[in-house]
Amino acid sequence: MTDPMFDVVVVGAGPAGCAAALEAARAGRTVALVERGPFPGSKNVYGGVVYGRILDELVEDWWEKMPVERWVTRRSTMVMTQDQALTVDFRSQDWAAPPYNGATVHRAELDSWLASLAVEAGAVLVTSTVATGLLRDARGRVTGVRTDRPDGDLTASVVIACDGVNSFLAKEAGLYPSGPTVEHTTLGVKETLALPREVIEERFAVTGREGVDLEILGCTQSIPGGGFLYTHLDSVSIGVVVGLKGLAAAKVRPEDLLAGLKAHPAIAPLIRGAELKEYSAHLIPEGGFDTIPDLVGDGILVAGDAASMCLAAGIWLEGVNFALGAGMYAGRAAAAAVARGDCSRMGLSGYRRMLEASFVLADHRKLRRAPGLLFSERFQQQYPALICDVVQGLFHVDNPRPKPGALRLLRTAARRHGVRARHLVADALNGLRTFG
Ligand SMILES: Cc1cc2nc3c(=O)[nH]c(=O)nc-3n(C[C@H](O)[C@H](O)[C@H](O)COP(=O)(O)OP(=O)(O)OC[C@H]3O[C@@H](n4cnc5c(N)ncnc54)[C@H](O)[C@@H]3O)c2cc1C
Is the CB of 106 under 6 A from ligand 1? Predict the structure, then answer.
């Protein structure tokens, strides 16, 4: 048998693929990083925030090198109804200095930067190239990928599939035969809106490179989901993420939901006068731990969204950090297997062990109930209305009548919105079990 062209072929130059290629190349392996877009990030969509702690393991002093727009120093959660909004707003100046916490970064710049690190480490970046299928030997072991290039196939000892949501490579390998179901997939739609830098600083109460991560609950009508608004240097990203099943049932267009969010009285003043720069949409695998597929096959590993590793439950959306972590471990496991000369399923199984020992599977396991809890009708519709009504009652001044107590307000709001006491208690306990 002829030697493979590469030790490792990584498909997809998103965060998972770039981290995998970087680690495998650093370990001295020959690596090809295959990307269908004309450059890394050209096809990719996300909200805009990276929580970068995992980068500490990948890039020394990454905060001095990453193309950061703003450092997240304010994290806010807004609960809204059509005409009310309650915001819990936290800021920390600790997050405005190294080693920072989160950052806003444009996606094309993030992926291009990550890919450049892999190239510096020795990986070969092959752009404008679609991996169209898997190559296998007579025993069924994966031995590379087919591509749409005239010069065709790329053979390798290990293929790392980082081709994002609905990975057909993972399906073809038999690791994720059905892919994420409609129930476990959401659609994110996002606009990038240009605003002058000083206007952003004034409206969002930030200075210099400080920035805001605002997550929103209650902005998607009857459809499970949530919204977000992030500040860049001279633009903001605003978007909604909604369950595909609910979207189809409600017969609502996602762009109408986004228009509704932009017109909300709590949001409209923040983006007044902004100019639309870009509209984009993308699917997200949101099923959490219970939908993560088999991750290892003979000659193949799966990482990132391709393995449903996005932790997205209504008001949170963390995917890049999980993709970076999984890609990093996949690259290390592949390099070690090549060095040992055993790229079988058994030889590559260190990948799963590394994931289990890291935040990637630990967080997913801990929060396995979160998608079900936060996507329930009560969390999505009844609780935002109930919370807003209770707070409105507390803040409303109704003299000369005596002030109602908080419990009475809660009972009245619960009755009005059809929430039973036993549900409140059960959800509170469930919430404690999930997030406690
Ligand atoms: C609207 C929206 C908002 C989001 N907001 C955030 C956020 O703020 N923070 C956060 O952490 N996460 C966010 N996410 C989730 C995050 O974007 C993903 O979890 C993350 O991008 C996953 O990285 P990945 O490398 O696994 O996959 P991807 O980023 O999807 O990368 C896959 C790559 O593979 C390439 N590819 C696919 N098929 C092929 C093929 N056959 N051949 C060659 N190349 C191929 C694609 O072009 C792409 O470059 C958001 C997602 C959406 C949709």
Answer: no
In the reported structure, the alpha carbon of residue 163 is separated from the centroid of ligand 1 by a whole-number distance in angstroms of: 8
Give the pLDDT of residue 232.
Answer: 98
- Domain range for 410 is 376-435
Torsion of CA 158, 162, 165, 168, to 10 degrees: -30
Under the banding of pLDDT at 50, 70 and 90, the label for residue 401 is confident
Mutate to test the pocket of ligand 1, among 305, 318, 328, 329 (most ligand atoms within 8 A of CB): 305
210 and 336 co-located in one domain: no
Give 350-392 pLDDT, tens digit per residue.
999 999 999 999 999 988 888 778 778 888 889 999 999 999 9
Examine residue 79 and state whether it is found in any structural domain, yes or no.
Answer: no
Task: Please work out whether the CB of residue 17 comes within 6 Å of at least one atom of ligand 1.
Answer: yes
Q: Do 422 and 330 share a domain, yes or no?
A: no
Residue 321 inside a domain? The answer is yes
Residue 205 C-alpha to ligand 1 middle, in angstroms? 30
- CA-nearest residue for atom 34, ligand 1, is 12
- Ligand 1 atom with the shortest distance to the CA of 13: 49
Number of domains present in the structure of the chain: 3
